[in-house]
Amino acid sequence: MSFFTGTIFSEALHMDTSVGVILPQDSRCHRHPGVLGVLHEGIEPRERPKTLILLHGLSDNYSVWGHRTSILRYAEEYDIAVIMPEVERSFYHDMKNGPAYFTYISEELPRLAAALFNVSVSPEDLYIAGLSMGGYGTFYAALTHPEKYAGAGCFSSACDIRPIVESDDYIALDSLAGLDGDRRGIFGESPKVPDSSDLFYLVTEAAKKPKKPAIFMTCGTEDFVYESNVRLRDHIQATGAFKFTYEEWPGIHEWGFWDLSIQKMLRHFLT
């Protein structure tokens, strides 16, 4: 396996930006199959691997998945490239007063990955996943551009951002420290969430489209976002339009839960 961290220049952001990249083409599974490494049952090594864009949460950055989970080992097991971008605290939006992170994530980054790293980003080979704010970003990208992705993994997602953005009550929470400046940067001086950023609205609209992403969703039953995840789950199921899998088990907003979630998602989509 190759694991790189570094910078690339983004035209959408007008600046260099950090990225982590896991590439499986030189893994032990490729060089010494069955001796020093074993692929998951049913996985065949590919010259141009499938690709997972893996998104971080509000208080993290691009490097966190590599530090806090065994994603390097899982990528080797499933022979998948993993691209981990940096979006700061943008909620994966083209910000009113800041960089165009949604354009970067949904349009530019796949092109850069294919050009720079010899990976496949064709719609049948490209996946996107994330936790918390990154779970929101995953839903936002997959529902807005359902034609781009084979599957979306959404873990402990910030499913309902209207109260977070529009209510001052949330700004006082330690877990959302600094959000007042963030929400004004994203949505403007009088922050209001447009329908185009509301996941419930986007589910309804995406359900009408001919191409819909497969969705794998998880949330811990003791997580503070559990109630909003259940509401979004029920809304998705009510459309009857998506290939949709939901799993919950005892857990809170923490890395042990997300490490298990990413394993479950890879197994679900790739085997």
Could you explain the architecture of this structure?
- With 271 residues, the chain is of the alpha/beta class.
- Helices cover 38% and strands 20% of the residues.
- Strands 1-2-4-3-5-6-7-8 form an eight-stranded mixed sheet, sandwiched between helices.
- The protein has helices at residues 28-31, 64-68, 71-78, 101-117, 133-144, 162-166, 168-171, 179-187, 199-206, 226-239, 255-270, and strands spanning 2-10, 15-23, 50-55, 80-85, 126-131, 151-155, 214-220, 244-249.
- It is built from eleven helices and eight strands.
- The protein has a single domain, classed as Rossmann fold (3-Layer(aba) Sandwich), CATH 3.40.50.1820.
- The radius of gyration is 18 Å and the shape is globular.
- Helix 9 runs parallel beside helix 10.
Mean pLDDT: 93
Q: Got a strand count?
A: 8
Structural category: alpha/beta
Provide the succession of SSEs: EEHEHHEHEHEHHHHEHEH
Strand-residue fraction?
A: 15-25%
From the N-terminal CA to the C-terminal CA, the straight-line distance is: 20 Å
Q: How many individual domains? A: 1
Q: Strand order of the main beta sheet, please?
A: 1-2-4-3-5-6-7-8
The coarse overall form would be: globular
> CATH H-level name... which superfamily?
Alpha/Beta hydrolase fold, catalytic domain
Q: Return the CATH topology.
A: Rossmann fold
How many strands, what sense, and barrel or not for the largest sheet?
8 strands, mixed
The name of the CATH architecture is 3-Layer(aba) Sandwich
Low-confidence stretches: none
Task: Estimate percent helicity.
Answer: 25-40%
What's the helix count?
Answer: 11
